[in-house]
Amino acid sequence: MRTLVGRWQTWAGFAVAAVILFGIAPAMLTSFRLDLLGQYLCYAIVAAGIGLAWGRGGMLTLGQGVFFGLGAYMMGMHLKIADAEIRKQPVPDFMQIAGIPALPSYWEPFSSAAFTLAAIVVIPTGIAALLGLGVFKRRVKGAYFAILSQALAAALAILLVGQSTVGGSNGLNGFRTFFGFRLSDPVNRQMLYFIAAGTLLVVVAVVRQLMQSRYGELLVAVRDGEERVRFLGYDPATIKVVAYTAAALFASVAGALFAPIIGFITPAQVGVVPSIAFLIGVAIGGRTTLLGPILGAIGVAWAQTAFSERFPSGWTYAQGLLFIVVVGFFPAGLAGVGALLRRRRRTTGVLSAGDAQHAQAETVGAAT
């Protein structure tokens, strides 16, 4: 009976989310605000993967900007090639300015849409799997893994800045089309938003299935007692690699959607600072829950836009203070506040019942 009720609640939750994302939001928001919401949904996709890897697996992933950037740059390369082909030019506009006469060899495969989509899925997951096996097989974890992942994000940003063939510090920008659809058309921009919203719902469904499966139980067991899991005959490294690879895939897909929605991608959006920003949203929302990281990422991104418009220099300090308060006083994030209140209410009720029984016992004893 509980399983049936849980399934109905899950389907009802997805139905409500679909109505909000596909019905209410497009009807109430302007085109500009809908584009902003599409960006927030991309952040939420990244956050869902971080919640799986960090919240359930205990892996502090400070380098998700690497995979986010890989997906965004690969999509940007395809879009720039498509724009050049429409204008019947041999290379994208920024290469003409830089004096590059022909496409670099590693750019040429991205002229194919099928190759680009496959690369967005395969390349980041392959890198994450190889890196994960190399790190987790050597039992690197905790702060050491966090520092390593953060160093990779910094290295990628520095590498991109020095590469003129990918735009250098300016990155890739000025996208005009998306698989043949003009990005200047509001209808096509709304289509991009719908794709991001649908992708988020699919990612949430996948993460939920992983969390509630036998694998999800093993992932939590590895987080809480890795040596015990190893003693039972399971390989914790393999379990961690699966979660880390899934998080990398989600980040890459989010980056690929983010590039055409926002219209550009630069090294500043894939380095250390964005990676930490992803983490802050997850921590504030509640990393151990399903919806906490998603709502936290959307909420923090919205707050950044709203407050930075009024207090441009103060948002960074407010974000840091919020992160400190949540980590220091609400380790489970805002999603854990409700659970804490329910637990205290339940404990208070038990204590009140116990006091009543004790008083009744004393009365009976005195009467006797």
TrEMBL record:
Keyword Ion transport: no
Keywords: Cell membrane, Membrane, Transmembrane, Transmembrane helix
Stretches that traverse the bilayer: 12-29, 113-136, 143-162, 191-210, 257-283, 290-308, 320-341
Main location: membrane
Cellular component GO terms held in the UniProt record: plasma membrane
Protein's cellular compartments: Cell membrane
Keyword Transmembrane helix: yes
Database matches in InterPro entries: ABC_transp_permease, ABC_transptr_urea_perm_UrtC, LivM-like
A single MF term (Gene Ontology): branched-chain amino acid transmembrane transporter activity
Annotated membrane topology: Multi-pass membrane protein
Protein name: Urea ABC transporter permease
Natural source organism: Mycolicibacterium aromaticivorans JS19b1 = JCM 16368
